[in-house]
Amino acid sequence: xxxxxxxxxxxxxxxxxxxxxxxxxxxxxxxxxxxxxxxxxxxxxxxxxxxxxxxxxxxxxxxxxxxxxxxxxxxxxxxxxxxxxxxxxxxxxxxxxxxxxxxxxxxxxxxxxxxxxxxxxxxxxxxxxxxxxxxxxxxxxxxxxxxxxxxxxxxxxxxxxxxxxxxxxxxxxxxxxxxxxxxxxxxxxxxxxxxxxxxxxxxxxxxxxxxxxxxxxxxxxxxxxxxxxxxxxxxxxxxxxxxxxxxxxxxxxxxxxxxxxxxxxxxxxxxxxxxxxxxxxxxxxxxxxxxxxxxxxxxxxxxxxxxxxxxxxxxxxxxxxxxxxxxxxxxxxxxxxxxxxxxxxxxxxxxxxxxxxxxxxxxxxxxxxxxxxxxxxxxxxxxxxxxxxxxxx
Length: 393
Ligand code: BGC
What we know:
Elements: H1 5-15, E1 50-51, H2 55-65, H3 70-79, E2 86-88, H4 97-102, E3 108-114, H5 136-152, E4 158-163, H6 167-173, H7 178-197, E5 203-208, H8 218-234, E6 241-246, H9 275-289, E7 294-298, E8 335-339, H10 379-387
Parallel strand pairs: 1-3, 2-3, 3-4, 4-5, 5-6, 6-7, 7-8
Helix pairs in contact: 2-3, 5-7, 6-7, 6-8, 7-8, 8-9
The structure holds beta-D-glucopyranose (BGC).
Beta-D-glucopyranose binds near residues 127 and 343.
């Protein structure tokens, strides 16, 4: 059964309480804390704060519901209530931050992804960004400084920052590529600057550490930890820094054993066959390198395993399902929380081979096709994520 646009929006409005039928993107009313928030990055803040379900993703889902069956729409309405990070993937999209902050209640924490480095996504094409190599002054002045001033205007709201997915891991494993060589100094300078400027009392910071199938290889653990620790130290060892984020927009299982790729011929060179082992193993390397080593792990789309032909396949993996819900109960001391970082339903990259940002990974056998540009809404993929969710909706 298809719902008409207005019927479905009315449904969404009741089922998810908001957004309203007329303006699905309108943020909710919420009361921030009565006084300034001060987060202690020596503790696990996720024990105290719940990840906020932001208006932007709720709005995308409210629109998606209009063309769904009643059964699926009811499940989608539940997805809209699950805490998910908001991505500031362009200077323009900084406009998402203020309304999301304003609607975050005192007992919740807003998850924010900082993602706009010059020469972004240097080892792939799908997420190449707006800033060119060399535009570091623009990154600092028009992007990071703007984010900092908005956060400063909201001292009574708790914020978890995830700094620049894939950037430093690419410098560890893909530095042979000319594009990554060109991006390297801007990445190092930019990540350190972001950590320094955004070291604010109501913030807790994590930097991206790829996943077990990336920096988990024996040869990558030490150089990986050293690259990340260098950024932390270059930023002046910020007090609000807590550690790393893993599996961002990824598909790895949390504690499947034996792991998904443990029977491949090179598996002996990588003990981190699941994210739990990766967090612990890489965490030890980070400690040796001299940086805080707690982790948050993206479990948004890892509900189903055994879908990828190769571990490195990252684009719109066919048959994927929503995964473990955000929670601070990970059972592992170094893992602060399971979080949803990638908004499930937003594409990883276009499958249109004539597009400028076409990456051949999005044309692979295990990649869903057709798929729109990275970040664009992907209705069919969203519906599959719901159907294949584990735990089920
Ligand atoms: C895209 C971003 C998008 C993010 C979250 C990335 O792959 O490049 O534009 O905001 O995914 O969907």
